[in-house]
Amino acid sequence: MTSSTTRPTLSGQTHTPVDTATRRRVATASFIGNFVEWFDYAMYGYLAVTITAVFFPDSDPATGLMLTFSLFAVSFLVRPLGGFFWGHIGDRFGRRVALSWSILLMSLATFLIALIPGYVTIGIWAPLLLLLLRLIQGFSASGEYAGASAFLVEYAPPGKRGVYAAVVPASTATGLLLGSLIATILTATLDSQQMTDWGWRLPFLLAAPMGLIGRYIRSKLEDTPAFREMAVKDEAVKAPVSSLFRDHWTSLVQAAGAVLLNAVGFYVILSYMPTYLSEELGLDQTSSYFATTVALMTYIGFIFVTGSLSDRFGRKRVLMSASVAFLLFTIPAFHLLDTDSFLVVLLVQILLGGMLTLNDGTLPSFLAEMFPTKVRYSGFAVSFNLSNALFGGTAPLVATWLIATSGSTIAPGWYLMAAAAVSLIAVALAKETSRQPLNMD
C-alpha cells in the first residue's frame, strides 16, 4: 500500500512515497510482461532457417534467408509509428494502459503465426500473412520497452533508477534465453523434416497463455506516482508527440543516436548470432543455439551490474565505455569466432554480450531521464524505435548482405563498430542525468 502523505523532492515537486513491497510488485510485473513480449518477438529470429524452408521453399538457401530477414526488417518499419501511438497513449492516459494493451496485441499476433499454413499449401498468401502478423508484432513491441522503462524509472527510489531500469533489458534477454533454450531443444530432438512440418510452430503457440498471464499481472498495478501526480494537476499535454518535437528535439536527436549501438548490437549479438554461426561459419545448429544460450545467461547477470555501475559512476561514463570497448575489440572477436574450437566461440560470445551490457544496462534509465514526465514515454518510444527501425531490425539483413557482397565473414563486425562510433558521439554531447531528480516539465 502506498502512503497517503507526500514529501517534496529535490526539484520542489511532491511525490507519494512508495514502499518496498509495491516496488517489488512493479519490478516483477515489468519483468514478466517484457519477458513475454520479447520471447514472442525473438522466436522468429531463432527459427529463421526453418521459417525460410516453410515460407520460401523455392528459393536457394542464401536468397531465402535474406527474404526471411527482410520480413524481420519490414516489421520494424512500423515501430516509429507504434512509438508515436503508444507514446501518446502512455503520456496522455497512463503507462499501465499502454503496457496492458501492447502485450495482448503482441501475444495474439504471435499465436496466429503458429496457425499460418506453409507456402506449399496456400502459396504466396503464406508469406503475405506472415508479413501482416510481423507488422502487428512490430507495432506492439514499439510500446513495450519504452513503457516498461518509464514505469520502472518513475517508481524507483532515488539513486537506484539505473538498477531498477535494468530489469527491462534483463527481462528482454530472459525472453530471448527461453527462446534460445526451446530452439536448442527442438533442433536437438527433432529432425529437419519434423521441424519444418510442425516443430517450429510449438513456441509460437505458447504466446496466448503467456500473454494473458502478463496482461493480468499488469492490470493489478497502479500507474506511477509521477504520472498520477501529473494527472491530478491536469498537466498532461493533449498532444505529447507534438510537444516532444517542438520543445525537446535536441534530446530526441541525441537519444536516437545513443540507441544505435543497442539497436545493432542487440540484434547482431543476441538474435542473429545463431544463424551467423551455423550458416556462415558452419557450426552445427544445436551448438550455435547452445553458445547463444550460455551467452544470454551471463548477459542477464551482467545487466544488473552495469545498471548499478551507472547509478554510481553516471550514465555517460558507462555508455561511453561500451562504445570504446566495441571500437577496440569487435574485429578481433569476430576473427576468433571463425575457429574450430567451440570453447573459443562460447567465450567470444560471452565477451561480446558482456560488452553489450555496458550499453544495454544503462540505456533505459539514460533515455527515460532525458525527457520530462509529460513526454517521457513518447520521447523514449520515438527515439528508441526510430533507431531500431532503421538499424536494429535491418541488422540481420545488412549483416547477411555485407557478407554476401564482400565475401568476408567479419563484415558484421565493422557494422557494429560504426554503430558504436555514432553512439559514442551522441552520448558525449548529452547531459549527465543520473544524479538529477526526474524532470516534470
Automatic annotation (TrEMBL):
Residues of the Major facilitator superfamily (MFS) profile domain: 26-435
InterPro entries linked: H+-coupled_symporters (IPR051084), MFS (IPR011701), MFS_dom (IPR020846), MFS_trans_sf (IPR036259)
Location (main, coarse): membrane
Superkingdom of the source species: Bacteria
Keyword annotations of the record: Cell membrane, Membrane, Symport, Transmembrane, Transmembrane helix, Transport
Transmembrane segments: 38-56, 62-86, 98-116, 162-186, 198-217, 252-274, 286-306, 318-336, 342-359, 380-404, 410-430
Localization in the cell: Cell membrane
Membrane topology of this protein: Multi-pass membrane protein
This protein's name: Proline/betaine transporter
